Amino acid sequence: MVSVGSADRYLPDTVQQAVKILVVGAFGVGKTTLVGSVSEIEPLRTEEVMTEASVGVDDLAGMHTKTTTTVAMDFGRITLNSRLVLYLFGTPGQRRFWDLWDGLAEGALGVLVIVDTRRLEDSFDVLEQLELRGLPFTVAVNQFPDSESYGADELRCALDLLPDTPVVMCDARERAPSVNALISLVEFVSSTVGAVRARETAS
Amino acid sequence: MSGPDGEYAASALRPYVITKGRSRPTRNTVGIEALLIAADPPRELPVSATREERALVRMCERLLSLVEAAAHLELPVSLVKVLASDLVDSGHLNARSSIPQAVLPESQLLQEVLDGLRRLR
């Protein structure tokens, strides 16, 4: 990635609309790597302070202690054409993070879920959250050098995915497979939107 | 323009001082990916405008998303949403549309996204 100075940080004035895709997954799964592989700008980071009631039952003083944590979100940008820009937000999948960035998921085209086959169980939380929210998603399997390779069907079964949820293999460090994973997602969203429209017309 | 690293991070209180106690913007239409640009010709800010409001308007002298402006200014997005919303209301900033909430993206828009991504391969 070519680093951009402040003079190049701006969008062309012709851009009229922004769309977004969320890139979610467990810690260390390659979210920021994928965003960096496809972004036209050096990925940027934004932070929020999260206040959490501490979990503990033996609170003799009867006081609710709270802890604050700083949580970061990395994001990147792709100018798709002269009028349209795409933002990619890399975020942990747990609900408390989405609530933190109020409005993060609203209006998103869809979600790319990155999984690591060495730690599949880390993805269960994320997938459950997406199914609850009804957001269309595609699973991108980030292949690490020491990960065993599994077939898409095997993974679909292990992750208990619906039959039509796309599963793609990916190397988040490389631009082409990362772009392909995004294309799979948008194709899937297109077909979903088409199906919903057809049902609405029929009824 | 912005304070030293982590100036606000040490305290969750400071953002609420900057926003005069509010945690929510006045309008819900300013998404984190909303595209912002300063009014042209520029409108002078009132003398009561905060340092952060001035910095945000200056940052948006050309087209930039809200979340990028927040990252460059090293301010929390939640805070910049409140400030941007006020500044749009007062006519100092213009916001360009993102997809309205709870609306299915149009197939034409999705096709544009696909075409744009395919050009990257």
Description:
The complex is a heterodimer of chains A (203) and B (121). With 203 residues, chain A is an alpha/beta fold. Chain A is 29% helix and 29% strand. Chain A is built from five helices and seven strands. In chain A, β5, α3 and β6 form a beta-alpha-beta unit. The mean pLDDT of chain A is 85. Chain B is mainly alpha-helical and 121 residues long. The N and C termini of chain B lie far apart (38 Å). Chain B has one domain: Arc Repressor Mutant, subunit A, CATH 1.10.10. A three-stranded antiparallel sheet of chain B has the order 2-1-3. The longest helix of chain B is centred in the C-terminal third of the chain and has 13 residues. Chains A and B meet through β1, β2, β3, β4 and α5 of A and β2, α3, α4 and α5 of B. Chain A: InterPro entries: Gliding_Motility_GTPase (IPR052705), Gpn (IPR004130), P-loop_NTPase (IPR027417). Chain A: This is ATP/GTP-binding protein. Chain A: Belongs to the GPN-loop GTPase family.
Secondary structure topology:
The complex is a heterodimer of chains A (203) and B (121).
Chain A: E1 17-25, H1 31-38, E2 44-53, E3 66-81, E4 84-91, H2 95-100, E5 110-115, H3 124-133, E6 137-142, H4 152-158, E7 167-170, H5 175-202
Parallel strand pairs in A: 1-4, 1-5, 5-6, 6-7
Antiparallel strand pairs in A: 2-3, 3-4
Chain B: H1 14-18, E1 35-38, H2 51-59, E2 64-65, H3 66-73, H4 77-89, E3 93-96, H5 107-118
Antiparallel strand pairs in B: 1-2, 1-3
Helix pairs in contact in B: 2-4, 3-4
List keywords for this structure.
heterodimer, A: 203 residues, alpha/beta, Rossmann fold, 7 strands, 29% strand, B: 121 residues, mainly alpha, Arc Repressor Mutant, subunit A, 5 helices, 39% helix, elongated, disordered N terminus
- Named at the architecture level, the CATH assignment of chain B is Orthogonal Bundle
Strand content of chain A: 25-35%
- If you average the pLDDT of chain B, what whole number results? 83
Q: Helices and strands of chain B: which structural class? A: mainly alpha
Runs of chain B with pLDDT <50, length 5+? 1-10
Helix content of chain A: 25-40%
The sequence of SSEs of chain A as H and E is: EHEEEHEHEHEH
Q: What's the total count of β strands of chain A?
A: 7
> For the largest beta sheet of chain B, what order do the strands appear in spatially?
2-1-3
Distance between the termini of chain B: 38 Å
Integer count of domains of chain B: 1
Unreliable parts of chain A: none
